[in-house]
Amino acid sequence: MDGLNKSMYDIGSDSAFAILARSQELSKSGKQVINLGIGQPDFPTPPNVVEAAIKALKDGHHGYTSSNGIAELRQAVVEDFFRRNKVRVNPNNILITPGGKSIIFYTMLMFGQPGSEIITPDPGFIAYKSMIDYTGAKAVSLPHRMENNFSFDAEELLSLVNDKTKLIILNSPANPTGGVVPKKEYDKLAEGLLKHPKVFILSDEIYSRILFDEHKHHTLLKYPEIKDRVIVLDGWSKTYSMTGWRLGFGIYPQNIFSYAEKLAINCHSCVNSAAQFAGIEALRGSQKSVNDMIENFKSRRNFLVDQLNLIKNIECKKPGGAFYVFPRINKKNLTSTEISKYLLEKKYIATVPGSSFGENGEGFLRISYANSIENLSKFVECLKQFMDE
Ligand code: PLP
Known about the structure:
By secondary structure, the chain is of the alpha/beta class. The chain has 12 helices and 14 strands. It has a 7-stranded mixed β-sheet, with helices on both faces. A 3-stranded antiparallel β-sheet has the order 10-14-13. It has a two-stranded parallel sheet with strand order 1-12. The site of pyridoxal-5'-phosphate has 13 residues, from loops.
């Protein structure tokens, strides 16, 4: 189209949202669709958090707030981050945003341009590559293989870094695999990055509370040797079942914070003030709902992984975090898109094809188990039938 910036043709989309739209269409036409496609907890936001938003509205918090977020919320983030990671961050380096996704958007705009390279997980969250492509930078795939429990290998990562590399994106626990990066890889990476002092890291830690078994979270801000070039992304969407509230944050190094803030001012001005008050209550109030949700996810994960591994030609790792499984499905050379499409159109089960998360995702399906055991059982039955057909 004449007049349109040609980068618009490079921007990708998120197939999970397209699949959600198709599932809703099927539901409207009377089909009972089981949605294992979209990445959101199936629990309501905790009631104390909802009440805090209502109170904020009743108390008259209706106007703009400061663009980086209200001070009390940023202070609550500092306290929570310290409780969980034993790292004290400066509240002035925190940018509250409408969801964690804005941090991806702003950070890609800050680092991406033609001629530069950004290393990104493959398979990885779709928005990373879409936005890198939009900026004209080259997206360099960092494989996260099933054989490596969907972690990266620090040596392989360091071998991808060159003079053009501006940013490395990391995500643990990961979407779409649930993979968790072990501390030893981060140790090696932090040491190796000393040789590349200009490279920044965006560490997407949005699933950092949703961890199982022996897995622990290791924020990259724990490494003094690189912490002045680490940007952390986190938020309330997944931990507190607040996907629709649009509340997230980034922690930026001091020397680039003002640029992120300028993007925020020019784009969203500030986050909905009632949602920010809800965010304070989420962090400072009872954590029982979060702990219960994680226990629930853990039983569903165990159930689903065991069941999937009983099906011939399906192999599924037990992920250490998030609420996705990423099984390898081998069915008569069908692509993951064909399998996902068949499951949606014929069995009314929404999943996301692995290939939409990058080349290394081909042959896999992303299944969100933020759904009841009853629906997960129905899914397993349908998948069994499909594999036998
Ligand atoms: N990062 C990852 C890895 C995600 O999976 C998501 C959401 O699916 C986000 C960031 C963005 O979350 P939100 O914008 O809802 O806070």
